[in-house]
Recover the amino acids of this structure.
């Protein structure tokens, strides 16, 4: 096939398809009808051009040349479309329409019945082509008329484009683009190139099909000119997010919108005409036996029955469709609230779990179990049943830490206690190091987690373990064992609350072990320095645990509070208590009861705050640089509270509308002065901010604590905010 003839054939097919598409998109609209007509005209002329270029005999080519005589009708039809789009009333004037098409009809008749507009046929490399007429006057008048119509269309469209807004502007842009494509390519190939004796195939009909694509796209996607109240109503009903059902007065279904059909799982044929009881068997506020003139009902909760037999909770409203006070039908509008219900149920379950865990901690703390074996069995079973964990075990080192022995393993499914084989610790150095430095190991997938690779083949796979949460058990500053929680049935994501609960169980174990050690020390050394040391450590431990109880009570109380502001106040108070309890925990775990290693303390405090203020879908990091600074309890407690407030403030406010960021903490001692700095690269603070004028409890507390340290607080803003505190270490004051 002649490739140029193929282009004409393709243009014909495209125009024909566009015409059908536009017409059936809205067959009642005048604009759609006009575009369909011009599409069919272009399809016809393109097919005639295909026949002309494909012809082998001159007689056949002449037939196709005469068949193309309808081309003069193309431009006036385009002008009518532009006038329709731009809402010109002149189209209602029949005389104007007659005058518009009369010259084109005359040109059509001259072209069909005479050879005045062409001078025979010429065979070119793209096929047969009509030769230019030797009648220059007639040819010029013809060209002038066609060009005038094209330019008039563009000018009218452009003027309307300048005055239009939003969708109208976008639509007329596409129509103008289509007209411009047709006019420019036609002028170039039909007039300009022939005048310069350049042989090039005519592209009028091909450009027309391309222009029609632009015009059709503008009309279909930005259909303002074709908008009617009926279409608008159909679009609104089809696209509202709620489902809509319309019944007659006897509650037989007449209409369900697309959202409702998708939710129900029915198609129109399956549900139209059926009784409303099919999908809303329990009408709630609607009594199907009452007459149709019952009152409107707004927003009541009921169930919607789906095609698959399942039911979903919905909020439903019912109102009557009236015409001149006569009831024509009933309109039901509903919203699927299954997702909201699921969130509410999940929230209730979480609150219930939190209350249950706090009660368990309080009960375990109050219990006195002098028998270590009984205590361990009770703890593993309690943890397993409280958190619904498949396996919970306790492991302890021997004296030289060469063996890690399982003291008790509780299996929830079998309700049994047993002991596993021992571990040779030299085979698991990375795992033990991770426990000591990270304070816990949380592995959702134990087979791929970096800290569990050392015992995948020896322990995880043989026992079918999927997820792991391991927490170290401390005695003074030494790790003496591990609390292991293992899931075998399904993968588990360990929540912060579960990690905090496990840490609390570890503290209780530490307390039990410390009590046993104290008892043993009492029997061995009476009134010795070591006994005093143990007792003093226990005091710190008990103070810390008492603060843990206060923290648990605050957490328990907050679970009953719905007000977000009150809940936040309780959470802030819990954080402050926890920052003080960590001071006593540090004193309990260190060799020197008079001094606290502040680097270890700050790392633990920041990690705790990051877990509390876990920011979903945000990547916030921290960096701690602390020299070998040790502080006594007099200085450490106000310092810890200041750091708690400043870092909490950054986590809550510094990274709003940010997906990443970093918090820095630096601390150093020089001469007899101590300096620490808390900064972030967040959004900073207002330029007119002054801490003296702040009304927030947190910053007022910071100001008070700095004064208590007899120190100086400096606030700077540069790509974030920086708090700098400098002070002398406070001297111990003897109590009376």
């Amino acid at each position: 096939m002649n490739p140029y003839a193929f282009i004409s054939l393709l243009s014909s097919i495209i125009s024909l398809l566009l015409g059908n598409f536009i017409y059936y998109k809205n067959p009642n609209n005048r604009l759609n009808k006009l575009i369909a007509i011009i599409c069919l005209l272009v399809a016809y002329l393109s097919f005639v051009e295909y026949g002309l270029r494909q012809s082998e005999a001159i007689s056949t080519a002449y037939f196709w040349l005469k068949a193309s005589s309808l081309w003069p009708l193309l431009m006036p039809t385009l002008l009518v479309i532009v006038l329709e789009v731009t809402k010109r009333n002149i189209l209602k004037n029949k005389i104007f329409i007659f005058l518009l098409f009369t010259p084109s009809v005359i040109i059509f008749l001259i072209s069909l019945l005479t050879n005045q507009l062409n001078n025979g046929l010429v065979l070119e490399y793209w096929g047969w082509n009509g030769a230019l007429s030797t009648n220059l006057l007639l040819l010029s008048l013809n060209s002038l008329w066609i060009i005038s119509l094209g330019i008039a269309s563009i000018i009218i469209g452009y003027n309307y484009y300048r005055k239009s807004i939003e969708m109208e502007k976008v639509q007329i842009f596409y129509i103008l683009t289509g007209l411009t494509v047709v006019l420019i390519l036609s002028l170039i190939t039909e007039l300009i190139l022939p005048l310069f004796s350049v042989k090039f195939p005519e592209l009028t009909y091909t450009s027309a099909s391309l222009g029609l694509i632009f015009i059709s796209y503008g009309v279909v996607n930005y259909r303002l000119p074709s908008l009617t109240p009926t279409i608008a109503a159909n679009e609104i009903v089809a696209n509202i997010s709620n489902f809509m059902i319309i019944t007659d007065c006897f509650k037989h279904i007449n209409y369900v919108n697309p959202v409702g059909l998708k939710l129900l799982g029915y198609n129109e044929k399956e549900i139209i005409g059926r009784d409303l009881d099919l999908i809303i068997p329990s009408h709630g506020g609607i009594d199907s036996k009452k007459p149709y003139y019952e009152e409107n009902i707004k927003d009541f909760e009921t169930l919607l029955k789906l095609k698959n037999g399942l039911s979903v909770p919905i909020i439903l409203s019912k109102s009557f469709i009236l015409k001149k006070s006569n009831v024509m039908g009933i309109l039901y509008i509903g919203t699927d609230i299954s997702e909201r219900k699921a969130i509410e149920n999940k929230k209730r379950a979480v609150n219930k779990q939190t209350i249950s865990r706090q009660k368990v901690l309080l009960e375990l703390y109050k219990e006195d179990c002098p028998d270590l074996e009984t205590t361990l069995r009770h703890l593993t079973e309690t943890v397993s049943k409280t958190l619904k964990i498949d396996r919970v075990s306790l492991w302890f080192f021997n004296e030289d830490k060469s063996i890690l022995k399982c003291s008790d393993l509780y299996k929830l499914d079998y309700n049994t206690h047993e002991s596993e084989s021992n571990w040779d610790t030299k085979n698991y150095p990375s795992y033990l190091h991770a426990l000591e430095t990270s304070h816990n190991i949380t592995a959702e997938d134990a087979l791929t987690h970096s800290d569990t690779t050392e015992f995948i083949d020896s322990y995880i796979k043989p026992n079918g373990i999927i997820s792991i949460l391991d927490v170290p058990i401390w005695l003074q500053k030494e790790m003496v064992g591990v609390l292991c929680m293992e899931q075998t049935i399904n993968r588990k994501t360990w929540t912060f609350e579960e990690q905090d609960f496990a840490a609390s169980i570890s503290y209780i174990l530490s307390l039990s072990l410390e009590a046993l050690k104290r008892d043993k020390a009492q029997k061995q050394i009476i009134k010795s320095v070591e006994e005093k040391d143990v007792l003093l450590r226990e005091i710190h431990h008990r103070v810390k645990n008492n603060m843990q109880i206060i923290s648990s009570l605050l957490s328990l109380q907050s679970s009953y509070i719905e007000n977000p502001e009150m809940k936040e106040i309780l959470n802030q108070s819990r954080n402050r208590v926890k920052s003080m309890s960590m001071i006593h925990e540090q004193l309990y775990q260190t060799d020197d009861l008079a001094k606290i290693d502040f680097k270890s303390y700050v790392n633990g405090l920041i990690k705790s705050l990051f877990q509390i203020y876990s920011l979903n879908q945000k990547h916030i990091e921290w960096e701690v640089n602390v020299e070998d600074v040790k502080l006594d309890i007099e200085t450490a407690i106000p310092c810890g509270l200041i750091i708690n407030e400043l870092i909490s403030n950054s986590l809550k406010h510094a990274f709003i509308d940010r997906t990443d960021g970093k918090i820095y903490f630096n601390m150093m001692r020089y001469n007899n002065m101590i300096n620490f700095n808390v900064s972030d690269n967040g959004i900073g603070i207002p330029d007119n901010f002054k801490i003296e004028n702040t009304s927030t409890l947190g910053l007022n507390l910071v100001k008070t604590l700095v004064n208590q340290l007899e120190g100086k607080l400096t606030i700077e803003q540069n790509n974030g905010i920086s708090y700098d505190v400098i002070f002398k270490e406070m001297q111990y004051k003897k109590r009376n």
